[in-house]
Amino acid sequence: MTEDMTEETRYTAYTGETGTLVLAGTPIGDLADAPPRLAAELAGADIVAAEDTRRLRRLGQALGVQPGGRVVSYFEGNETVRTGELIKELVRGARVLLVTDAGMPSVSDPGYRLVAAAVERGVRVTAVPGPSAVLTALALSGLPVDRFCFEGFPPRKAGERAARLREVATEQRTLVYFESPHRVAATLAAMAEVFGPERRAAVCRELTKTYEEVRRGPLADLARWAEQGVRGEITVVVEGAPAPGPAEVGPDELARRVAAREEAGERRKEAIAQVAKEAGLPKREVFDAVVAAKSG
């Protein structure tokens, strides 16, 4: 035991083993959605690191439990400094519980730096799975859910936002975004411009709360609707881009795809077969495109 390990930390004697970092999912709205294990972890952790200690207090009251260990704040403003402090305690053997305001830590919330540092130091990291706005919105959207990607919050500045959207304009997976209520109208308008006004989407607000609403439709319609003002926590789900048809892939592009596969180590025959399959074209047409490119 070192001198700076006070009674508050309640650690057992040093055993030579590191502690455990526990990432705990918290309700995104309805406190009744709290995972059953959360109460036990709150009571048993040596340290509870919370994005907002006031919200943690309200959550504990709803669950009928008080944190058994020391409570510290862990938010964007002190994340860098606090990460180092918590890693020291974890290496000494502490059990540290990390909770954010809603959902899973690290998903557009504080936590990534602490997890990365814990992994680097060989500290065990586990999780209490819980509610997720990403998965809840995706399931409610009515859009394809077999393949999706989470894009977090779009950039605030219009130029940067448009550039980021253009990066995924041809992405065929369903896209999921978080957005603030006062920027969602501008973001939906930018999406309609970049992705196309008819691209399907869903705006999910106040999920699991009293005024939950899921508004579905083309991006242009949703952008006009949002101009009237939108309140609450917002998650936007956007349909992926349609797969390109055979007519959209020209000879030069076919030859480029084959060359890229060859550079990656594939034999030309296999590369031509794969490109033909992806483009929905006969292998002979892809072969002719490669020959034409070589001749040119």
Automatic annotation (TrEMBL):
Its EC number is 2.1.1.198. It is found in: Cytoplasm. Residues 20-223 form the Tetrapyrrole methylase domain. It is an enzyme of class 2 (transferase). Keywords: Cytoplasm, Methyltransferase, rRNA processing, S-adenosyl-L-methionine, Transferase. The keyword RNA-binding does not apply. It holds the Pfam family TP_methylase. Its main location: cytoplasm. It catalyses: cytidine(1402) in 16S rRNA + S-adenosyl-L-methionine = 2'-O-methylcytidine(1402) in 16S rRNA + S-adenosyl-L-homocysteine + H(+). Catalyzes the 2'-O-methylation of the ribose of cytidine 1402 (C1402) in 16S rRNA. NCBIfam families: 16S rRNA (cytidine(1402)-2'-O)-methyltransferase. Belongs to the methyltransferase superfamily. RsmI family. This is Ribosomal RNA small subunit methyltransferase I. The lineage of its organism: Bacteria, Bacillati, Actinomycetota, Actinomycetes, Kitasatosporales.
